[in-house]
Structure formats: C-alpha cells, structure tokens
Amino acid sequence: MRMTRTAAFTLSLAMACVAWQSFASGQQVRAGQGGGRSGPAPRSTYVRLGGRGEGTSDAVLYEPGTGSAKNGIALLFGHPSESNFNHPSGRELARRGYRILMVNVSDGRSFPDTYAPAYSTALKYLRGLPGVEKVVVITHSGGGHEMAFYQNVAENGPKACSGPEKIYPCRPALTTGLEKADGLILLDSTLGAFHQMSSVDPAVDSARPRVRVPELDMFDPRNGYDRANRHASYTAEFSRKFYAAQAARNLQLVEQARARLAAIEKGESDYADDEPFVVPGMGINATGARLYQPDGRVVSKTRAPHPLLKADGATPTETVRTVRPPSGARPEDALGTLGVMTQNSTVRRFLAMSAIRTQKDFAFTEDDIVGVDWKSAMSSTPSNAEGITVPTLVMSMTCHYLIVPNEIIFNHLAARDKQFALVEGATHNFIPCRPEYGDTVARTFDYVDAWLTRPGRFLTQSPSPGDVAR
Fold first, then answer.
1. Please, which residues have CB within 8 angstroms of residue 320's CB and are 6 or more apart in sequence?
2. In which element (H, E) is residue 24 found?
3. Which of 135, 264, 350, 461 has the fewest beta carbons closer than 10 A?
C-alpha cells in the first residue's frame, strides 16, 4: 500500500524524534569536544512549501530549544533522497543555535533542474523568518552536485547549464530567476555525473551482460583482487587497460543514449517523451566497478596541504591521507544483478544524471582524477563550482574515498572566501570508523559552526567572539 505524504511525514518526524533522543542520551561529550551540543533539544515544525508534480516540496524547520544569538544565519539542507527530515545536519546545527530547514523535493533524483524552483521557494521562506540576515545552503554526499548546480545557476542564470558543451542542457523555464544563497557548505560531496560514470564496468558487454571479459575484470583474482577480504592490489598495466576500456565504454553509452534521444525527438521511438535505457555493469550509488574502492592506494591522499581536524584537538595543515578500509559490494552477490550492478534508467535521466565525457588519458591516480571533461555534464560538481562565488566550506571525511574528489571540487571553486578541511577518522556518515578517532560528529559540526560565525563572513559581528574558524 502506498503511504500518503502526510503519513510519511508523520512517520519520518516520529523516527527523527526517537533517533535524536537515542543519540542524545548515548553521547558522552569528552572534555574540549562537542561543546556546541549543550542545551535543550531542538524544536521542529512541519512546513508545506508547495509546488506541483515533480517539484512538490515540503520541509521540517529545526530551531534551537531556546533563543539564540545566531538567528541572523539560517540554513537550508537539500539532498536528492526520499526524506531529509532526520539528517544529522538538522539536529546538530539546531543544537548549536541555528534555524535549519530540511527540504524534501518529490522525485528529486530525476533531473538537476527539476528541484530548482522548490529550493528557490525554500530560500525565500527562510529570508522571511524574523531576524534572518543571511541564508546558507548545506548539503551532504550526492546533495553536493544538486546544490552546487543550484547555486551556480542561481548566480549565473540558465546559461550556466544550457551551453553547447553540455551533453544534456537544463530547461531555462526551471532555472531562471532563482533565489541566491549567501553561502554554501559541502560535506563529503560526490562529483555528480562522474560518480555514476566511474562505476561503468568495462568487463561487461551490454549485449551479453552475463559474459565477462577476463583481462578487464577487476573482480578476477588473476588481476589482483582478493575476494575473501574485498581488497585489491592492481598493477599499473592492468589499471591502464581498465581505465582505457572504461572510458571507451562510457563514451559508447553516452553516444547510444544521445542517438536514442534524437530518435525520440524525431518521433521514431516507441515512446513520445522518453524510453527505457538499461546499462548492465553500471553500479548503483556506492557500488560498481571502481578500482579505488578495493585498492586503497588509489585517490588516497590530497595533492596539497589542508587543515586536518584530529581527535586530540590539533588542526595541523598537511597533506592528508585516507584511513578508509576496502569497500564495495561482494561481486559474487552483485555481478549481473538488476538492482545493484545495473543502471535501470531512461534515456533522458541517464543523459541528465549519469552522462559525462571522458578523454583518452582518463585515469585515477594516487592524488588526482585526470582525463575528464568536467564541463560536459550539467550535474558535474567541479564544473558548477567554477560559477560559485559566495563563501564556501568543503569538508571531507578521511575514512571514506572522497578526499580527492572533494579537493578537486575545492580547487574548481570561484569563491575567494573558500575553505577545505578534513575530519580525521570520520566515515561518510560522520561517525568514527575506529574508537580512537573520538567524536567525529561533534568535530565536524563544531567546525561548521565556527566557520559560519567567523566575524565578517555572514554577520558583521560574531555571536560568540571566541568561536572562530580554525
């Protein structure tokens, strides 16, 4: 039975309350850490933002349990998931004195421009709250490409996402006159369309998906994969062949989808508006044929020194290395499946969300990703970063595989006021991957709090003069 939006909201809010109570009661705030969490639990209010069809949106407004000197700054959280009401950003920042609106957009996974009007409405709503001077967008993971797209287009108009370089341009009707945010926070962001492309398996032929090419199979022990431990040590020669074949198959898929779109628009398809587009051997979300997941040497360190938030309270500026373990689905459970290692999409959705051009020199290295035409995808986070000029904070979690992608995003930002910091031992969901890394949740959001309240960034005077960004 399909749950109504009202029922879904009620259930989500109830789960949020239970989760918060469990979280709060189980926390042991160590000396010098998590001080921003003190005080009563935040209040929450349901907000109906409106809209129609795919653009329908609603939200939960988290507010501090008592009055706050930080009311001049309000935050908007957006992410292309079914419900954002219980994301930790809401409770953590409300505990630190901020009002934050957790926004859901119906079917936000479809196209980057679909949700833009809803976020514009949400920003206007926040600007109408008493005392609000600045509104800052905050997001996490796959929300990075969504909100970077939004802010780029809000600052620069539809031309930023509809130029001839785009494989699939945005719709001007949805991207004109958007409300601009005053700042942006990206927490362990993905790279947008490239994140999907990087899961393309070159060992798979779309015509015969159950037949694998042994010399390109990253899950074959003969190529360096340890199935028992989901660990790998790939040779330079195998990696070179793999990336070349992955780039070639990716371009083939992009051209196939473009050809089908042309057929649809000419009336030569069985469907008038769109048609199914199934890609065997293209993983979903965090799965797929990615060498960097089992081989921890790949994208394992930053190219330049950056602040590292350590468990002992120190914040050295250094070249940062990942501490992540091997990851990814077990191939014996995933290969050949429709739900894990196949992208079951449509022509338009694939082109809008997963298509990006790669070049002959495409490869992952220890500290970089090369051979990618970042500008070719409207959902490309690095490309959209080039149009963002407002103050921006990028944070990455070192017990995950996104430290190099996040540094790439940071380097592409046009903002003069930008900061990149990494949290030692934090997983993608902010919790520590080992006990010795301490309270990584507190460390992450304490840093966000300090960045927001730095004097002169958003407010003329800091509400807590001793609490400045490290």
1. 301, 302, 305, 306, 308, 398, 403, 422
2. helix 5-26
3. 461
